[in-house]
Design brief:
about 110 residues, alpha+beta, Arc Repressor Mutant, subunit A, 3-stranded antiparallel beta sheet, two-stranded antiparallel ribbon
Length: about 110
């Protein structure tokens, strides 16, 4: 992983993957990585060494599933999509992040 990702909390990439698949529908690994980079305005740079292990982990958890298909360049690629368990997990993670953000915001608002 390059860029900012090394500085963000563990599990953030999983949340980004799940949310991107929810918003965009099925994507292959390379397309998913590029979409995350685009949304982050290139603050996050992903490589195969970070994306594919995360995809494998999420698939093992049952949160995403993979199906072979053809990419836009007509190459065979695995396309990943969110499962119902993945949607449930995403809702839980989003709520957890929102609670954390509210907590941190309270401390950021303290006067010095």
């Amino acid at each position: 992983m390059a860029g900012l990702l090394g500085d963000i909390p563990y599990g953030t990439l999983d949340l980004m993957i799940l949310k991107t698949l929810q918003a965009m529908g099925p994507l292959h690994g390379f397309g998913l990585a590029r979409q995350i980079e685009q949304v982050s305005e290139n603050l996050i740079e992903l490589n195969q060494g970070s994306v594919y292990p995360a995809l494998q982990r999420l698939q093992q958890q049952g949160w995403i599933e993979a199906e072979w298909g053809l990419s836009e360049t007509n190459r065979r690629a695995k396309f990943y999509s969110l499962t119902s368990a993945g949607r449930k997990q995403l809702r839980a993670e989003v709520e957890s992040w929102r609670r954390t953000a509210r907590l941190v915001q309270r401390f950021l608002a303290l006067e010095t």
